[in-house]
Design brief:
The protein is of the alpha/beta class. The chain has helices spanning about 1-15, 55-70, 125-135, 165-175, 190-200, 205-210, 225-240, 245-250, 295-305, 310, and strands at about 15-25, 35-40, 45, 70-75, 90-95, 100-110, 115-120, 140, 155-160, 180-185, 210, 270, 275-280, 285, 290-295. Strand 14 (about 285) and strand 15 (about 290-295) form a beta hairpin. Helix 3 (about 125-135) crosses helix 7.
Amino acid sequence: MDVLEEMGELTRSGEAFALATVVWRQPPSSSQPGSRAIITADGELRGWIGGACAEPVVIREAQRVIAEGTAQLLLLGTPDQFGGTVPDGMTVIPISCQSEGALEVYIEPVLPVPHLVVIGGSPMARTLATLAGALGWRTDLVDGPAFAPDMADERSMVVVATQGHDDEDVLTRAVAARPAYLGLVGSRRRGATVLGYLADRGVPEEDLAQVRVPAGLDLGPTTHQEIAVAILAELVKLRASGALSRSALSRSGASGSGRRPAAAPAAEAIDPVCGMTVAGSGRRLRYDGIDYYFCGARCRQAFEQNPDAYTRKETRC
């Protein structure tokens, strides 16, 4: 129940995470079928999925699942523990670690619902908000004077559709939110005028460069309903390509933004005893001028007792 409550909190906060569930075990694994854990995008594990051998592998693969948005079924062990036949779609990752235990873990991504803020009260703005709602997106339709930067964040998509009603003031506040997408509805000429006005008043050039004018795919002269479709189509296309995520991450890590940068992936190494891939941190032993890393205390102890038996392997980090 604690894991489910954590999932609810992360979902409400709009944070991406992965849910890992043990669906099969072979003793002496310390986990049990039904054991679950949440792994955040920066590698924090909440819950229980297994011991020191399984945990770093699950965290690494969960981060991959979050980044790619595709679920993964892992067999942590060796293929011969399945009688030499591994089902299609399963990824086998060795975690021998001097144990014959094995785990089958299903990792699924839980990605935040897209958040769209449409600023304006025109028929086009209302149509866009309705269409986005039909896709299941969290959508806010806000009048220009009521919009504040805290109504959006680096994961939000913001479309300014005030259409001549205080565009400059509204866009200044929208830029301050630093959203993943910021589009201005209007002609290129009108857009150039608005952006030039803001540049003259000190809005940083790199912020203004993020504004798309005109917002949406270029359909030429068309109706307000079709403009709404064109904007939504552009947003769907950018999200599917991952462009919005990359844009948000790069800006959230910018100097002086006040937001925490994305965590750098941990370096990896090969345990010279069991051959398992481990994070290049902790359980380190320096021997003959080379750093070796271990999945657990037993592997490190075996190395210490007879290092020459393992240093002949290609295990350098």
